[in-house]
Structures are given as structure tokens and as C-alpha cells.
Amino acid sequence: MAYKFIDNYREKGARKRLVELLKKKGIEDERVLQAIGKVPRHYFFDETFWNQAYKDIAFPIGEGQTISQPYTVAYQTELLHINKGDKVLEIGTGSGYQTCILVELGASVFTIERQEKLYERTRQVLPYMGYKPQFFLGDGSRGIGEHAPYDKIIVTAGAPTVPEILLKQLNIGGILVIPVGDEEQQKMVTVLKVSENDYEKHVLDTFRFVPLVGDKAW
Fold first, then answer.
1. Are the CB atoms for 78 and 95 separated by under 8 Å?
2. Is 37 left (phi over 0), alpha (psi -120 to 50) or beta?
3. Angle at the Cα of 165 (from 164 to 169), degrees rounded to 5?
4. Model's pTM, two decimal places?
5. In this structure, are residues 173 and 158 in contact, taking their beta carbons and an 8 Å threshold?
6. Residues 6 or more apart from 179 whose CB is under 8 A from it?
7. What is the pLDDT of residues 167-213, one digit of tens each?
8. Residues assigned a catalytic role
9. Rounded to an integer, what distance in angstroms lies between the CA atom of residue 69 and that of residue 89?
């Protein structure tokens, strides 16, 4: 595939229009919108498909995965309430676009991907773009216990249930955002860890994600 890293007036203008669209769809967090407006989403596309990069759609990236719809990225990110310096676990690096948004917001990101080709590509491309999370290859459904606890955890694939192992890796006061349902559609779920064994769970809107595959998922 042919990838180029050129960001000119055309792409910057397209991002501005995307931000305005996300505002109309209900995204209110200005910091999230600013991050969407800054990260060059077309860098994650073959040059042939640059005209698709700033449409509010998901798009295939290989290995049976997609780059998430910008609205979905903004929606999940808004639910996390990222503060600068937050330690964030991202399960499902995928293209790395969501990762960049989190780093742009000032988070310290630990991101894990099970598909080796995607892992190798993001590990090369994101630092080139100026984004330097900590990359891991492995089963994200188990989290990354050796670096826990985390202030926030985001899961970017649909799970059948909320994995207990992820809740245990949250700080008290931490937030988990995860799509939960079957392999066709999921409800976005947020979980606030109130104490060591107490949680507040909220079930929100319907989405469609690729399945979360692993020991604690499908």
C-alpha cells in the first residue's frame, strides 16, 4: 500500500468540516474536538483512499479490522473525561488513530494490539507522526496487568461482557468505556470504579464494533 505523510490545506480544511459535523452530532468536549481537528486521519489510509479519510465512516485497514468512525472515536473519548497526565490503557490499537487522539489530550497511553501486522505498523508510524505511546503485542482482553492500575481504560472492540480482569486494573475513581453486546451490535457501557469492589455502570447508545477476541472475550 502507498502511504504518504503530506498535510496540506485540503486535508486541514476537511478536518475542520469533520469537526463541525461532529459538533452537530452532539460532541461537546472542545478538547476532544480540537484533537480530532489536529490529528491527520488520512495518514492511516492508502493514498488511493484519501477522499474517504474525513468522511464520518469506518474504513477497512486489513487483518479484518477497521479504523473507527470519527464520531465513535470522539464519543468514546468524551466519555473517558481525559485529564492531562492520565494513565490510559487502550485495548485494540488498530490503526492507531484513537491512540493519537488520547496522546493529543495529554494522556500517558499504554496500547495493546493482538494482530502483529497492525502492531508493527503503528509502532513505526505513530512515533514518526510525533505520538509516542507504549506499544504492546498480545491479548488485550486480559489488559496489561504489569502496568496497572490505570486511570482510564478504553476498549475499541465489542465484548460479550465487561471483563472482570479489566475492572481490577482500574484505579479507584477510574473509568472504563467498553462496547458490550453480541457480534452484530453493542451498547456503549461506562463503568466508574467507586471503591475496590463497588462500581457504577451506565448503558448508553448502540454501536457496531469488530469483536474483541481473546481469553476474556469471544
1. no
2. alpha
3. 115
4. 0.94
5. no
6. 155, 157, 158, 159, 186, 187, 188, 189, 207, 209
7. 999 999 999 999 999 988 999 999 999 999 999 999 999 999 888 88
8. 68
9. 20
Listing DSSP states for 16-69 in one string gives HHHHHHHHHTT---HHHHHHHHHS-GGGGS-GGGGGGTTSSS-EEEETTEEEPP
What does the angle CA 161 – CA 65 – CA 99 come to, to the nearest 5 degrees? 80
Q: Which three cell numbers stand for residue 29?
A: 468536549
Q: What is the pLDDT of residues 81-140, one digit of tens each?
A: 999 999 999 999 999 999 999 999 999 999 999 999 999 999 999 999 999 999 999 999
Q: Cell numbers at residue 136, please?
A: 504492546
If one counts every other C-beta atom within 10 angstroms of the C-beta of residue 199, the result is 13
- Write out the DSSP string of 83-143: -TT-EEEEE--TTSHHHHHHHHTT-EEEEEES-HHHHHHHHHHHHHHT---EEEES-GGG-
Give the type of residue at 186: Q
Amino acid letter for position 2: A
Cell triple for residue 189? 457501557
C-alpha cell of residue 20 = 463541525
Structure-block grid coordinates of residue 15 = 478536518
